[in-house]
Design brief:
Number of helices: 15
Number of strands: 14
Oligomer: single chain
Structural class: alpha/beta
Strand order of the largest sheet: 5-4-3-2-1-6-8-7
Helix content: 25-40%
Length: 398
């Protein structure tokens, strides 16, 4: 049985066709610039299958057309989805609110409920719904499953998930810490247990999902006890374009003193802050080049990023009491040796060390980067959210 995994964004669709039992990727691709004009001739769809890349370079009006063109590319590459042994379509959905905390078979009522949760995730849930509706129209006979980014953090302890605001107001508007990147944190923490050859229930670990979006989690056994993202993905670590934690009074100051409205503040904190807001770029490779060339703004952006990351690592060490593993994952976490080294520098007295040779080795597999015999294992473990979604979907419909 194969599972088609769809991650639908506001102007893009990422997808993979996988075999969930083996993890083999049959085909994958991305649809870009949906609903935008295309004048430069660059491809709007890149579809990879069997070592070949198939492209479409015309404008794409909407998600429905995008998926229809993707299905044509599947057929062109030798995988007609209508004839494949397609067991399910798994959809990444960002926000499940209090309603959804397990993989869920999609029905009309479920689609409406996900749409209703758009007040909590206005940048993400509407796009997720659009992708779901388009896929259901094209594959009406195939079970469709929603897998929620917030699910792994649904059972956070009350002290960790509760904000110190008026309780009635919070209850009326669904205000609590929900957490995000849950599919990645759950997958990686499971892989850590496998890698260490230990029962997951016995392990305390910190997982650092560091990409353009970034989050950290403290996990005791198989349960998360804290995470950095909150009601929305804006809270916590400094990210590519998001501010992470800040004084809420800054928002009031911007409204009163700068005359900004809600949309302008939202745009500032989500799209024009973080590494990009401080340095002008949000790609860590480019940031590194700027630092090497003596750019002081880039160096400050990096230092702020590391400072925030270390603060949360320290908080989670205290929260867990005993830590068996600290794991880096996602684009920056898996590929930037300097971030890993600087995040954990000077912590040898706590049993946390990074071996320079292991840390800089060109290795894409799960691996130790701590020295032999270190008290706390420091690891790099590649995340695979698509495989996690595929397996969750297959288990539900199986």
């Amino acid at each position: 049985m194969k599972v088609l995994v769809i991650n639908s964004g506001s102007s893009s669709i990422k997808y993979q066709l996988l075999q969930p039992d083996t993890g083999d990727v049959v085909a994958s691709g991305v649809v870009q610039r949906i609903g935008e004009s295309v004048a430069d001739g660059s491809p709007t769809i890149e579809h990879r299958s069997g070592g070949e890349t198939f492209e479409h370079d015309g404008p794409i009006a909407d998600h429905g057309e995008g998926l229809r063109l993707v299905f044509e590319l599947f057929t062109k590459s030798g995988h007609d989805l209508a004839r494949e042994d397609l067991g399910a379509v798994g959809h990444r959905v960002v926000h499940g609110g209090e309603v959804f905390y397990e993989p869920t078979l999609i029905t009309d009522d479920v689609v409406r409920a996900i749409a209703d949760l758009s007040t909590l995730a206005p940048l993400h849930n509407p796009a997720n719904v659009t992708g779901i509706e388009s896929a259901r129209a094209l594959l009406p006979e195939v079970p469709q499953v929603a897998v929620f980014d917030t699910a792994f953090f649904h059972h956070l302890p009350a002290a960790a998930k509760t904000y110190a605001i008026d309780a009635e107001t919070a209850a009326a508007h669904g205000i609590r810490k929900y957490g995000f990147h849950g599919t990645s944190h759950e997958y990686v923490s499971g892989r850590v247990a496998e890698f260490l050859g230990r029962d997951r229930a016995e392990i305390n670990q910190i997982v650092l999902h560091l990409g353009n979006g970034a989050s950290a989690s403290a996990i005791r056994g198989d349960r998360a006890v804290d995470t950095t993202m909150g009601l929305t993905p804006l809270e916590g670590l400094v990210m590519g374009t998001r501010s992470g934690d800040l004084d809420p009074g800054i928002i009031f100051h911007l409204i009163r003193a700068a005359g900004m409205d809600v949309q302008q503040v939202d745009d500032l904190l989500n799209r024009r802050s973080g590494i990009k807001g401080l340095s002008g770029v949000n790609d860590f490779r480019e940031l590194g080049r700027l630092i090497d060339n003596g750019d002081t703004a880039a160096k400050l952006a990096y230092d702020v990023y590391i400072h925030r990351l270390r603060r949360y690592i320290g908080a989670y060490l205290v929260e867990l009491g005993r830590v068996d593993a600290i794991t880096f994952t996602a684009g920056v976490g898996e590929n930037d040796a300097a971030v890993r080294a600087d995040a954990l520098a000077g912590l040898a007295e706590f049993g946390i060390e990074v071996d320079p040779q292991r840390n800089t080795a060109k290795d894409r597999s799960a691996r130790y980067i701590s020295p032999e015999g270190a008290k706390i294992a420091v690891l790099v473990v590649p995340t695979n959210e698509e495989l996690a979604i595929a397996r969750a979907s297959a288990a539900l419909v199986g």
